[in-house]
Specification:
heterodimer; A: alpha+beta; Penicillin-binding protein 2a (Domain 2); Beta-lactamase; 2 domains; 7-stranded mixed sheet; 18 helices; 35% helix; 24% strand; B: mainly alpha; two-stranded antiparallel ribbon; 2 strands
């Protein structure tokens, strides 16, 4: 039995040791548990949450742009941006050849990107989902795609001078896209959620979503079919006249809404490239067509300015339509020897476009035949001060306030001491206006003497469907009687004057031709001209004003009557049809 | 009628008090069983509710994704319609098919007593 006792002693000791060890282990565990669960609990919980929590910015849907009939001019859809991790690409040459063909990107350029030492390179951004699917089908390791919003212009180049465009990141760069960028952009949202190891959202986990607020939709006054016809008329005019560019703007007389605003050459807002094979900006930097000349370009309006001069003289009671201006010659010298001097810088010589015998002419005849000398004699009765106030009243020299990016104010050149500026201004020199300013000035005559600010956006619709209608800004520039009289004089210009090519069958049309020599780089007038025509119809109740400007037509077409008036007729005819205006004359 | 002997009624034992040491409670399993049962049912119920909620959440997520996909598809279709209606596409096709932009129509307004109102294409003889 003694041996048995001795045998149990070591086992008890071992048990005690093991017990102590276990107790120490448990104590260690308890300490660690306390440390983890109590001391570091908050930090560790935060670390875990950080791993699971994902915060994503929710990009708002950019607002749409519609024409007056609800046709889409601009919208945003989801596209796929293709990117690569060059380190994971095993056969970059093969991938560059395969993917380059699908993306329409030069394979050499792709190969350069695919062999770079970066971890992330874009191969092409914002490609159509179908293309992304084709690339995914190649199952190339290291090629990825992520969704990205892209701006689409379904009307393509047709409305490019209206909508403008956005850059690759969706920031407005031109036109309505730039002017209304803040409203169109919307408000970004934010989503916070927990995800598992595979990136799936953990149900019942933390989820906090602040939805993005989509941008405001713009409902414009543009009539897309008329916009197309205007652009086609301009493109056709370029072919016919050999001009550098052609611009057309169509205004609703009563509301000031711009029904069409087109130009040629045109550009594609999607690619942001000029649709003109002959345009090479490295050769001719001015051939790019992004800049909208209707709003941003200024030109000396030439004879179209005479509407303002004669309106002012009639409104001030200085003349009537039948007032006879005696001895109107075809040449007028406001400075001695100005017409005989070889120095082109010596201003003060004014000549009519065509030579004619000195004759007594009525104000109506002067206007119809577009006599420069006669108009200056009428303006002389008015005086410089009153002439300037009417020019400003008709909106020249200040921006019209149109909702389009970077509008030019135009210039009124009446330097102190300038003896001939008033005479030049009376016939459309010494002042520079935008085609839109001239259209608005004519629209004020068509609107019985009330000037209305032109605008493109008729209303804005927010995400809740609330509509914010654009208010009209108006002011009276001449009396109704003067405006009606001027309408008749304008009708005479088309019926029997210089603007006969502007006639539209079935309608009485009124308007005025304009031909202004362009200033050269040396500040002297050149042989090159800007031909224009601004007019309205139907004359019993004008509803539409169309302004056409053709830059540097061939010599044969250098006048407004020869080049701009036919374009006017074409566009006006379409405009009257589009608006369903009842014919008011049996001509044709 | 034969006489029957009366049976003596059986005497009941009178009630007596048992001492504590002799009293032995019988184990009452029923409440425990009920509690366990309730616990199990609650556990299973909560588990079922949780999985149902999770399943619903996944379904909701799937539906949301489906809605987003349908909306994207809708937008794509709107875009396609807009592209198809683009005058720059329609006009050349119409021209190919021999369609032309309507010419001027001359509207003749006549007296009520006269012939009916007619609309004559420009250039057409009456």
């Amino acid at each position: 039995m003694a041996g048995g006792k001795s045998a149990t002693r070591p086992s008890k000791a071992r048990i005690a040791v093991i017990g102590l060890f276990l107790a120490a282990a448990w104590l260690g565990l308890a300490v660690r548990l306390f440390q983890v669960q109590v001391v570091q609990a908050a930090d560790l919980a935060d670390q875990g949450l950080d791993q699971r929590l994902v915060t994503r910015d929710l990009a708002p849907q950019r607002g749409k742009v519609f024409d007056r009939n609800g046709e889409l001019l601009a919208m945003t859809v989801e596209a796929q941006s293709i990117w690569a991790n060059p380190g994971q690409i095993e056969e970059p040459l093969w991938v560059a050849q395969q993917v380059g063909g699908l993306l329409g990107v030069n394979s050499d350029a792709l190969l350069e990107r695919l062999t770079s030492d970066r971890d992330f390179v874009y191969l092409k951004r914002q490609v159509e989902p179908g293309v992304a699917e084709q690339i995914a089908a190649l199952e190339v390791r290291g090629l990825y795609a992520h969704p990205e919003a892209t701006r689409i212009y379904p009307a393509g180049a047709v409305a490019s001078h209206v909508t403008g465009f956005v850059d690759i990141d969706g920031n407005g760069q031109e036109g309505l896209e730039y002017f209304y960028d803040e409203e169109l952009r919307g408000v970004p949202g934010k989503a916070v959620f927990e995800r598992d190891l595979e990136g799936r959202i953990i149900p019942q986990g933390i989820s906090d979503i602040v939805p993005a607020v989509p941008g405001t939709d713009l409902n414009t006054t543009i009539d897309l079919p008329l916009q197309y016809q205007s652009q086609q008329a301009c493109l056709s005019a370029l072919d016919t006249t050999g001009a550098r560019s052609c611009w057309v703007v169509v205004l609703d007389v009563e509301t000031g809404g711009i029904l069409a605003m087109a130009g040629a050459p045109v550009f594609d807002p999607q690619t942001r490239q000029t649709v003109d094979e002959d345009c090479d900006v490295t050769v001719d930097p001015t051939c790019h067509a992004f800049s909208n000349f209707i709003v941003r370009g200024i030109y000396e309006p030439g004879s179209t300015q005479k509407l303002i001069t004669v309106s002012a003289a009639i409104e001030e009671g200085e003349v009537k339509a039948g007032t006879v201006i005696p001895e109107v010659a075809d040449r007028l010298e406001l400075r001695e020897e100005a017409c005989r001097s070889a120095d082109d810088n010596l201003f003060g010589c004014y000549e009519d476009f065509e030579e004619h015998e000195t004759a007594n002419m009525t104000v109506a005849d002067i206007f119809t035949q577009s006599s420069n000398v006669g108009t200056i004699l009428v303006a002389e009765k008015l005086g410089q001060e009153r002439l300037i106030s009417y020019i400003e009243g008709f909106g020249l020299g200040t921006p019209t306030g149109v909702d389009y990016s970077v509008e030019a104010p135009g210039t009124l050149n009446f330097e102190a001491g300038c003896e001939t500026c008033w005479a030049s201004a009376a016939i459309g020199y010494s002042v520079a206006a935008t085609p839109l300013q001239m259209a608005a000035a004519y629209a004020s005559i068509g609107n019985d003497g009330t000037w209305t600010a032109p605008h493109i956006v008729a209303s804005k619709t927010d995400v809740d469907g609330n509509e914010d209608v654009t208010g009209l800004e108006t002011r009276r520039v001449v009396s109704e009687e003067t405006a009606r009289l001027m309408q008749e004089l304008l009708a005479n210009v088309v019926a029997e004057g210089t603007g006969q090519a502007a006639s539209v069958a079935g309608y009485r049309v009124g308007g005025k031709t304009g031909t202004a020599n362009k200033l050269g780089e040396d500040g002297r007038y050149t042989e090159a001209t800007r031909a224009s025509f601004v007019g309205m119809a139907p004359m019993d109740d004008p509803q539409v004003v169309v302004a056409v400007l053709i830059d540097e037509p061939a010599f044969k077409f250098r006048t407004g009557g020869a080049s701009a008036a036919p374009v006017f007729a074409q566009v006006m005819e379409q405009a009257l049809h589009r608006l369903g205006v009842t014919p008011d004359a049996g001509t044709g | 009628m034969t006489a029957q002997p009366l049976r003596r009624p059986k005497r009941r034992e009178s009630l007596r008090v048992l001492s504590g040491s002799r009293f032995r409670k019988r184990p009452t399993l029923a409440p425990w069983m009920i509690m366990v049962l309730i616990g199990v049912i609650a556990f299973l119920g909560l588990g079922f509710a949780r999985t149902s909620l999770d399943r619903s959440a996944f379904e909701l997520d799937g539906l949301n994704r489906s809605i987003a996909e349908q909306e994207a598809l809708n937008e794509q279709l709107r875009l396609e319609i807009a592209r198809l209606e683009n005058p720059a596409r329609v006009a050349p096709l119409a021209e190919e098919m021999g369609l032309v932009i309507p010419g001027d129509t001359r509207q003749l307004l006549v007296d009520l007593g006269g012939p009916a109102v007619v609309s004559v294409e420009e250039g057409e003889t009456q």
